[in-house]
Amino acid sequence: MTDPMILSGTANNIDSLRQNLIAGSQKVQQQIIPQLADLGNEGLEVLQEFLLKRRDTPATWIDGKAYQVVYNSDAPTAKEFLETNFPEGIVPLKSDCGISYNSLQQLLTRQEFQAADLLTIQKMCEVAGPTAVQRKWLYFTDVDNFPVQDLQTLNHLWVVHSEGKFGFSVQREIWLGLGKNWINLWTKIGWKSGNNWTRYPHEFTWDLSAPRGHLPLSNQLRGVRVMSSLLNHPAWNT
Predict the structure, then answer these.
(1) Rounded CA separation 210/208 (Å)
(2) Containing H/E element for 202?
């Protein structure tokens, strides 16, 4: 028979974690989510409650981290919860061109960053049109004409599912902080070391130990204009 005092202590611990998850800073929330994950079904319930309360506001990377715990759970109730409340994932998959970003969200949720990176450029080529799909890369003019909503969706997916480390907006923030110096940017985000470009794919880092802004990749070897178009895009002004 379980000691009532132990049950009481567990309940108090859950309540404390719940309150800190709701009201704590991002740093506190980041520490609490794995603690809840270790508590089994009771912890899952708290995370599900947290996600439901925040469903009507734009997802942050904290929501993404909580979502990933539920997504990776083997509990049948977790799967049912996600199918009922987040059938496409935690980030709304808005597109002005009818492009489906569902498979990208799944890859990013599982933190399969290399596959997600490849799919990101494929999806961007789909948006740009058949010629871009055929050549498998983008001209800067393709990026200039890229729909705001689609670029925001792609960026939001990367930010939410990477603890805020990856995404075009993250790269832009770093670039602006460096006074728009491209040479310094390549080094800062790990795309260049000294005079040597990072070699694809083996020299890139495909997990969260990568430098901030490391992903997603853009083919900077074609010149800076594609990246410049991305980081100057009107999507970041709205």
Answers:
(1) 5
(2) none
